[in-house]
């Protein structure tokens, strides 16, 4: 790091000198153009570069291929070409195309006997706070509806709740992509949040995504014999932990930690109860995210 002094030139503009090493490292010269723009942390200067938004995957193992496509999608890649050394079987093509159902904006735009090409049609939202708040409210609604039918749950009600959890898992992937694109292309998309807070939003939504995965598993395993008070506890923990993240009021730390211990002591060793404890542990993780968010050096 070096300190540079502002200099004023005719016309009222201000200039600073740019380190020679940085200019050489980026292959720039006196005619090079730079992007200069404001972020929540200050003023940013960077070279003009074309995003590397295409990836190619050669199928070896189908599960690995599906995993890589999902990662590329979430990290902002806009074109993914999947190739095979031989003719793709109908089963492989079906598995690839089903990704369109679980990744917002992912579309098959071309295919042949040996390849499938995806494009991503996805609009980035710069209102990250309300995007995540909306996700929280959807989780709360599922929890509330689960509690309302827990004493008389039927296979049809389970199916409805599980489908809604799957929709939230799909939304989760979209929010992760939203954050990844916005951070990497911050000259185009400005979240108006400090870098540290954006990192914590990403961690927070990751913890919520895992909470929803265990909620889905809990719903699939639960029956009329589950102790309703334990589900109420987890629902309350989720509400308090997520509210803490946005308000940055830390009054409920002691309560959340106490409820976690209480749930661990009260829960039996059944599979539904284990899922409840896992959900509660992610509430504690979200509480940690909130506490970290309150600490700022500048």
Q: How would you characterize this protein structure?
A:
With 298 residues, the chain is α+β, with helices and mostly antiparallel strands. The protein contains nine helices and eight strands. It has helices spanning 20-25, 62-74, 90-97, 128-149, 155-184, 195-221, 228-247, 253-266, 271-294; strands at 7-8, 14-15, 34-39, 42-47, 54-58, 79-83, 106-111, 115-120. The strands form three sheets. The protein has a four-stranded mixed beta sheet with strand order 5-6-8-7, covered by helices on one side. It has a two-stranded antiparallel sheet with strand order 1-2. Strand 3 and strand 4 form a beta hairpin.
Low-pLDDT residue spans: none
In whole angstroms, how far apart are the ends? 18 Å
Provide the gyration radius in Å: 24 Å
- The quaternary organization reads as single chain
Q: Number of DSSP strands?
A: 8
Percent in helix? 55-70%
H/E element order: EEHEEEHEHEEHHHHHH
Biggest β-sheet, characterized? 4 strands, mixed
Looking across the biggest beta sheet, what order are the strands in? 5-6-8-7
Structural class: alpha+beta
Number of helices, counting only DSSP H or I runs of 4 residues or more: 9
**What portion of residues belong to β-strands?**
5-15%
Global mean pLDDT:
94
Cα shape = flat
Summed up, what is this model?
With 298 residues, the chain is of the alpha+beta class. The chain is built from 9 helices and 8 strands. The chain is flat, with a radius of gyration of 24 Å.
List the helices and strands and how they pair.
Elements: E1 7-8, E2 14-15, H1 20-25, E3 34-39, E4 42-47, E5 54-58, H2 62-74, E6 79-83, H3 90-97, E7 106-111, E8 115-120, H4 128-149, H5 155-184, H6 195-221, H7 228-247, H8 253-266, H9 271-294
Parallel strand pairs: 5-6
Antiparallel strand pairs: 1-2, 3-4, 6-8, 7-8
Helix pairs in contact: 4-5, 4-6, 4-7, 5-6, 6-9, 7-8, 7-9, 8-9
């Amino acid at each position: 790091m070096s300190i540079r002094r502002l200099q004023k030139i005719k016309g009222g503009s201000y200039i600073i000198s740019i380190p020679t090493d940085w200019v050489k490292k980026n292959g720039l010269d006196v005619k090079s153009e730079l992007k200069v723009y404001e972020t929540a942390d200050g003023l940013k200067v960077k070279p003009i570069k074309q995003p590397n938004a295409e990836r190619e995957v050669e199928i070896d193992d189908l599960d690995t291929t599906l995993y890589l496509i999902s990662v590329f999608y979430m990290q902002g890649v806009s074109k993914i070409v999947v190739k095979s050394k031989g003719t793709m079987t109908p089963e492989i093509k079906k598995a690839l195309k089903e990704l369109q159902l679980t990744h917002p904006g992912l579309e098959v735009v071309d295919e042949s006997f040996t390849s499938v090409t995806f494009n991503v049609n996805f609009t980035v939202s710069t209102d990250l706070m309300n995007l995540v708040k909306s996700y929280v409210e959807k989780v709360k609604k599922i929890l509330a509806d689960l509690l309302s039918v827990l004493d008389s749950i039927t296979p049809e009600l389970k199916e409805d709740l599980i489908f809604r959890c799957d929709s939230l898992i799909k939304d989760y992937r979209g929010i992760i992509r939203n954050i990844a694109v916005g951070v990497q292309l911050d000259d185009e998309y400005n979240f108006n949040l400090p870098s540290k807070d954006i990192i914590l939003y990403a961690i927070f939504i990751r913890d919520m995504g895992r909470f929803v995965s265990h909620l889905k598993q809990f719903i699939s395993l639960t029956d009329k014999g589950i102790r309703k008070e334990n589900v109420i506890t987890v629902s309350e923990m989720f509400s308090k932990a997520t509210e803490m993240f946005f308000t940055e009021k830390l009054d409920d730390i002691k309560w959340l930690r106490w409820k976690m211990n209480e749930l661990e002591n009260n829960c039996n060793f059944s599979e539904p109860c284990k899922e409840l404890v896992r959900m509660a542990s992610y509430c504690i993780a979200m509480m940690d995210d909130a506490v970290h968010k309150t600490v700022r050096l500048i």
